[in-house]
Amino acid sequence: MPLKPTKNIWFNNELVPWESAQIHVLSYALHYGSAVFEGIRAYSTNDGTKIFRLDDHIKRLFDSAKIYRMNIAYTPQELSQACKDIIVTNELNSGAYIRPLAFRGYNDLGLHASKDDDVEVIVAAWEWGTLLGADALEKGVDVGVSSWNKIAPNTIPVMAKASGNYLSGTLVAIEAKENGYDEGICLDTDGFVSEGSGENIFMIKNGKLVTPPLSSSILDGITRDSVMKIAEDLNIDCIERRITREELYLADELFFTGTAAEITPIRSVDRIQISEGERGPVTQSIQEVFFGLFNGKSDDKWGWLISVE
Predict the structure, then answer these.
(1) What is the full per-residue pLDDT of the chain (309 aa) written as tens digits?
(2) Which of 69, 84, 216, 249 has the largest CB neighbor count within 10 A?
(3) CA 206 to CA 246: how far, in whole Å?
(4) Which of 79, 106, 126 marks a domain boundary?
C-alpha cells in the first residue's frame, strides 16, 4: 500500500518537511538493519483523536533499544509528545498510523557498535488503512503456512521489534503473495505455529482462545495483549500454548492481530476452509469490543486511549 506523504516528520527533535527527512547512504542502520521501531494507531473518536496504548508502545521501543545497546537521547515522555505533535502538525484528524524509529546513524561501519554511537530518532505519521484490507475485517483472509521458519530465539532476539527481524517476515509475505495467499504463517524452529509475517495469531477451539507463547519466537504484541484482556473481560478462557500446524485446519475460528492488521479473521489455511469459511462469532465479539473503544460503544476500562490534545 503506497504511503501518503504528509507535511512533516519529527526528526531528532525538529519538525522537518516530509521530503527533507533524509539520512546518509553510509548510515549504520542501512547496512546492518540496526534499528528499532513501533507501529502505533491513532483513531478518530467522538471525543477527538486518540492514540491507542501509546505508553506501552513507547516502552517497548525503549526495551527494544536496550536489547540492542542503543541509547536513545530522548525520554519516553518526549517521544510520546512527538507522537501527539506529529498527528496535530499533519492534521490527521481522522486517525493515522504512527511510526517512531530509532536507528544507528552515520558514524562507524564496524560491527562493534556501542550504545554510545549516534542514535537518531524519527517519528512519522500517515493515513494507513487495515493492513490486509478493510473487507478482510469481516470476510477474512486466505493464508498459507510458509516454507520459511521463524528465527530461533538464540539467533536474533525476537522480543525486540527490530528492523532486521523483518527480513524474515518479508520473505514470508512475498512467498504468500506469489502462491496466491493474502498472508503467510511461520512455524518456529521446532515446527510449531509461531506467527504471521507481521502479526500474532489466535485460534478458537471449543470456546477457548489459544495463542502461541512467547517461547514460540513471537513478538510480544500489544494488540495481542489487548485481545487477551478483552477475552478475559468477556469471560473467554485464553490459553498460551504451542499449536501444531494441523490444529489450524481443525480450528473453529482463527484470526490475526497487530497494530496494522488490527483483528483480521482467517477463513482458510493452505486452501483448507476454516469452519464455515467466514468470521466466527467469538472473533466478531472481540472485534466489537476492540473497535467499540473508538466509536464509543465500549468503555475504555483499561485506560488505553490517549488524547493528542
Answers:
(1) 678 899 999 999 999 999 999 999 999 999 999 999 999 999 999 999 999 999 999 999 999 999 999 999 999 999 999 999 999 999 998 889 999 999 999 988 888 776 566 899 999 999 987 777 778 999 999 999 999 999 988 899 999 999 999 999 999 999 999 999 999 999 999 999 999 999 999 999 999 999 999 999 999 999 999 999 999 999 999 999 999 999 999 999 999 999 999 999 999 999 999 999 999 999 999 999 999 999 999 999 999 999 997
(2) 216
(3) 16
(4) 126
Report how far residue 107's alpha carbon sits from residue 67's, in angstroms, rounded to the nearest whole number: 20
Number of domains composing the chain: 2
CB 151 within 8 A of CB 111: no
C-alpha cell at 275: 469452519
Question: Is 302 a member of any domain?
Answer: no
Respond yes or no: is residue 161 known to be catalytic. Answer: yes
Does residue 303 fall inside a structural domain?
Answer: no
Beta-strand runs (E) in the chain: 8-11, 14-17, 35-37, 40-45, 48-52, 95-104, 119-126, 141-145, 183-187, 193-196, 200-205, 208-211, 238-240, 253-258, 262-269, 272-273, 305-307
* Residue linked to cell 469452519: 275
Question: Is the pTM here over 0.70, yes or no?
Answer: yes
Shared-domain flag, residues 57 and 84: yes
Q: What burial letters (b/e) apply to 166-198, b meaning 16+ CB within 10 Å?
A: bebbebbbebbeeeebbbbbbbbeeebbbbbbb
Q: Which of 59, 161, 297, 301 is catalytic?
A: 161
Beta bridge partners of 203: 210, 254
- Return the exposure string of 122-134: e unless at least 16 CB atoms fall within 10 Å of the residue's CB, then b: bbbbbebeebbee
Residues 217 and 268 in one domain: yes
Name residues whose C-beta falls within 8 Å of residue 303's C-beta, 6 or more positions apart in sequence: none
